[in-house]
Amino acid sequence: MKKINSGILLILLTSMTSLLVACSEDNDSVKSENKTSGDHVWKEQTDALKTSKDVAKKLQDSLNQQQQKLDESH
User: Which residue among 17, 19, 32, 73 is least packed, with the fewest CB closer than 10 Å?
Assistant: First the structure.
């Protein structure tokens, strides 16, 4: 009787595992698509951060130029 129960359990587990694997997404293809397109969950936020860093750099450059002009005039 134990052999029958363990056999049924083995068949059941094998079937469930096969269904799980067959019905799951292919994560490798999803990851490669995201890498090639550059899209990810926080794309908007990272784009905004990059833009703000660019603006901050331009502002700092402008301030440095103004300071340099003031130093030269005195």
Answer: 73
